[in-house]
Structure formats: structure tokens, C-alpha cells
Amino acid sequence: MPEPTPLADDHPMMSRLPALAVACPTCGSEPNILCASHSGTRPRFHDVHQARTAAHQEQTR
Ligand SMILES: [Zn+2]
User: Fold this and answer.
1) What does the pLDDT read at residue 1?
2) CA of residue 61 to ligand 1 center, whole Å
3) Fewest CB atoms within 10 Å of the CB: 17, 26, 29, 58?
4) Res 60: pLDDT
5) How many of the other CB atoms lie within 10 Å of CB of 36?
């Protein structure tokens, strides 16, 4: 599997999906890296896992 490329901090996805700033507890994606689908082969371009959104809210509260 190819290494995922981290997004730049000013990448449009970062402002659209602020939860990308934290690691995802569900799929294990590092910060600035898109969530992967369950098979781990396809990045999720349109959303992130709910647990990641929750984790981000915990951190920014
Ligand atoms: Zn995820």
C-alpha cells in the first residue's frame, strides 16, 4: 500500500474538515491524512470518521 501524503496545513480540505488536524481513532490515520475506508484502500475525500470529529472537538474545547 502506498504511503498516504499528508495535506498541507493550508489545504482546502483542512478548513473543510478541521478534524483532520487530529489522528483518527477509528482508522488510525495520522493528523493531516485523510481517513481511509474500512478496507483501507480508498481515502475518504468527503468526510472523516465520527470518532475523529469527536476527538477533535475534545481537543479544541
Ligand atoms: Zn478515520
Assistant:
1) 57
2) 20
3) 58
4) 81
5) 19
Distance 10 CA to ligand 1 centre (A): 20
> Domain ranges in the chain?
13-60
Model confidence, pTM = 0.83
What is the structure's pLDDT at 43?
A: 78
**Three-state DSSP class for residue 43:** strand
pLDDT of residue 21: 96
Query: Which three cell numbers mark 42?
Result: 480508498
- Distance, CA of 44 to CA of 31 (rounded, Å): 14
Helices (H) and strands (E) in the chain, counts: 2, 0
Measured between alpha carbons, how far is 53 from 61 in angstroms, rounded to an integer?
12
